[in-house]
Amino acid sequence: MAKDLDVSGTYIKYFGSKCDVVAVQGQLFDCKLRWKRLKVRSSEKGRHLQQAYRKSKKVVYCFSVYSVLLDYDNDFGLLVFV
């Protein structure tokens, strides 16, 4: 019985801690990998938002120019739509 406990203790002493270290290192690596993916996705979403903002500014500008032209036409009757 004591010999079995000694064998088990020796096994845990030398191999158990190594297994724990490997498991912890694997979890740490997974966590770092997830963090990298999260950073990449957030930067991609940021780029998409900037592009959408630029496009919306162009649309608003074109709409304001079009509105000015229509107001000018209403005032002077220069444009004729057929």
Structure characteristics:
82 residues, mainly alpha
Helix percentage range: over 70%
The chain-level mean pLDDT equals 78
Q: Which overall shape is indicated by the principal axes computed on the Cα atoms?
A: rod-shaped
What is the beta-strand fraction? under 5%
Order of helices and strands: H
Give a brief rundown of this model.
The chain has about 80 residues and is mostly helical. The protein contains 1 helix and no strands.
Description:
The chain is mainly alpha-helical. The chain contains one helix and no strands. The longest helix has 75 residues, at 2-76. The protein has one helix spanning 2-76.
Topology of helices and strands:
Elements: H1 2-76
